[in-house]
Design a protein that fits this description.
2 domains; Rossmann fold; 38% helix; 8 helices; seven-stranded mixed sheet; 20% strand; alpha/beta; single chain
Length: 212
């Protein structure tokens, strides 16, 4: 049962001494925040354009962000933001702009409901195929949790390249479960500068940087 699994996961964090993540999970549960996993079939999406949704925010993503010295001069966009799990974590940091791009309107509605319940007002959502979202000049951070197949990732990286040509600036890319690492590092000019491990999801998180 989903509720029983949520309780077991929360208690596992407490047993490991990760009080901060336990408290977040408890708040999610008591506030009826919906960050539950959803498969591509459940979402009614095409596997040609999308992957499943899973929550990638929380204490392990915070460890990444704490290493990056986020300031009010930074802005981040989450591609394939789903129900807003990572965006909830980003909202704890002084980004001047936090945005999510999500293909499915129903997930955007859930995310916005989650933000309202948590009194988060500094996040905006856009319903769009990630490949069609080209308004990137305001951002210097890009986040991915393995949200879509390689063909879509190629288009998104191309859009980032085009934005960089129009507006040269230092960029960082945070990639949880970096299945297309070769595309990022070999074909885009980004270089991996840090590596973390998301213990809950059992995935690596790579941080890439690029200067003009």
């Amino acid at each position: 049962m989903p509720i029983l699994n949520d309780v077991k996961n929360a208690l596992a964090f407490l047993c490991r001494g990760e009080l901060k993540e336990f408290m977040f999970r408890l708040r999610v549960y008591t506030s009826k925040i919906d960050l539950r996993y959803a498969s591509v079939d459940e979402l009614g999406l095409s596997a040609d354009r999308s992957h499943h949704y899973a929550h990638s925010g929380g204490v392990y993503l915070e460890k990444v962000l704490n290493s990056l010295n986020i300031t009010a001069g930074d802005a981040i966009v989450d591609f394939g933001s789903g129900k807003g799990g990572a965006l909830i974590t980003f909202a704890k940091y002084p980004f001047n702009k936090i945005s999510g791009v999500e293909l499915l309107p129903e997930l955007v509605t859930i995310a916005e409901q989650n933000f309202k319940k948590l009194n988060i007002s500094n996040v905006t959502m856009t319903v769009s195929d990630a490949a069609d979202f080209t308004d990137l000049d305001a951002y210097n951070y890009f986040y991915f949790y393995s949200p879509f197949p390689r063909s879509v990732m190629v288009d998104v990286i191309h859009n980032i390249e085009s934005s960089l040509q129009k507006k040269p600036r230092p960029l960082r890319l945070i990639y949880c479960n970096p299945e297309f690492h070769d595309l990022i590092e070999k074909d885009s000019g980004f270089h991996k500068t840090a590596e973390f491990y998301h213990h809950q999801l059992h995935h690596l998180i790579y941080v890439y940087s690029r200067t003009p």
